[in-house]
Amino acid sequence: MTGPRSGARVRPGTGQEITGETPAARRPSRAADDGWGILSYLITGIFLWGGLGWLGDTLLGTAFLLPVGLLSGAALALYTIYLRYGQTPAAPGTPGKSPQAQEGRR
What we know:
Elements: H1 30-60, H2 65-86, H3 99-102
């Protein structure tokens, strides 16, 4: 039995070398990454378009652009989420999904 490399950190009581890698069980899943991505799209859309609506209301002296901006931001964020995450990839050999099938529709 050989010991750990010289200079390597060892977990006390086990003799196992500590590496910089996170165990697979503790890594975030793809679903968690997708969830954070969806949340960031929603927050960004609402804040961006709501901010533009607020700016428009401030500059023009109106009171309707902020709600319009908030709703538009949410709607555009949902549409972007649908485009990004809502479509499943086509299975190989699915009719109508190949580039050759799309060629005649220009």
